[in-house]
Amino acid sequence: MTIPAERLDQIANRFAELEARMASGTLEGEEFVQASRDYAELEPVAKIAAEVKAAREEISELEDMLADPEMKAMAEEEIAALKKHLPEAERELAIAMLPRDSADSKPAMLEIRAGTGGDEAALFAGDLYRMYERFAAEQGWKVEPVSMSASEVGGFKEIVANVTGSGVFAKLKFESGVHRVQRVPETESGGRIHTSAATVAVLPEPDEVDVQIEDKDLKIDTYRASGAGGQHVNTTDSAIRITHLPTGLVVTCQDGRSQHKNKEKAMQVLRTRLYDAQREATQGAEAEARKAMVGSGDRSERIRTYNFPQGRVTDHRIGLTLQKLPQIIAGPGLGELVDALIAEDEAKRLAAMAE
């Protein structure tokens, strides 16, 4: 894809303008925050655009030297090298110029729920959580459980966690959907392979300014927590249930030792789910465009199968099978799948932009 010279100049001029504003020392408050954000987003684009422009100009200068017999051989060699590199740089620039999801830079709420398969599904939900936890550690992210419902056999019926760090949602957003596992459960004496499933939802976590929640729209109930957690959990009204009256959304949290902490976590989950609902409503008008993407993020869509007997993982959206199940389920190996999904999404959006 060839980027017009006029577009390269526009990028350079806009970046120079931002640099001058940032250096002026006259920006304050929200104006400075917005300018800083714009500068950070444009800087990598401007850098690649400058490389593309410089390569084109160098090719033009070298082509003028072809008429000189003494310089011709050297010029041809350098032109060939530049023309080999230029398409890669132009594609990199085209990808950098693709419209960004405003939520890509945000932290995320990771929700994993056991699906069909009973106890085995709960165990698999636990495996998935640990996979994401270790992958997050590789990325330098922090994972903090917000609420959980443990299974008696191990694993989780449901677990919700907050994942913070650089570019969390951008990397994890394609993980939403149904994850299926095929393996012989530990409780299976006949050695038969069972198929179970768990659902994963990755929701961008908003800033407080992204979602305004008024006290009059909330119904807050306290009750006595149940389940494991020791004597304290079962003898105080520390559990919180928050109902958002306009939407009917209900969030509960009982894992913290204090009512205040549980309320804080429940509000965090509520704010995230309201933000996700707002995003869904906004993107509804762009449904046709979203069909070009790797996945819609629909939690009912089966996206991946983990086949333990054959040691393989298949992502059904892009038709990619990797014989690396141990590395993937361990966490670090998930990066190869994540990168492939991002690359496929970028390729499809580039193709759509070129049409």
UniProtKB/TrEMBL annotation:
Principal localization?
Answer: cytoplasm
Q: Which InterPro entries match?
A: PCRF (IPR005139), Pep_chain_release_fac_I (IPR000352), Pep_chain_release_fac_I_sf (IPR045853), Prokaryotic/Mito_RF (IPR050057), RF-1 (IPR004373)
**Segments forming domain Prokaryotic-type class I peptide chain release factors:** 224-240
Q: Where in the cell is it found?
A: Cytoplasm
Keywords linked to the UniProt accession:
Coiled coil, Cytoplasm, Methylation, Protein biosynthesis
SMART domains of this UniProt entry? PCRF (SM00937)
Alphabetized Pfam families for the sequence: PCRF, RF-1
Which sequence ranges form a coiled-coil region, renumbered to this chain? 45-92
Q: Which HAMAP family match?
A: Rel_fac_1 (MF_00093)
Which NCBIfam families does this one have?
A: prfA (TIGR00019), PRK00591.1 (NF001859)
Q: What does this protein do?
A: Peptide chain release factor 1 directs the termination of translation in response to the peptide chain termination codons UAG and UAA.
What name has this protein been given in UniProt? Peptide chain release factor 1
Q: Tell me the organism.
A: Qipengyuania qiaonensis
Highest classification ranks of the organism: Bacteria, Pseudomonadati, Pseudomonadota, Alphaproteobacteria, Sphingomonadales
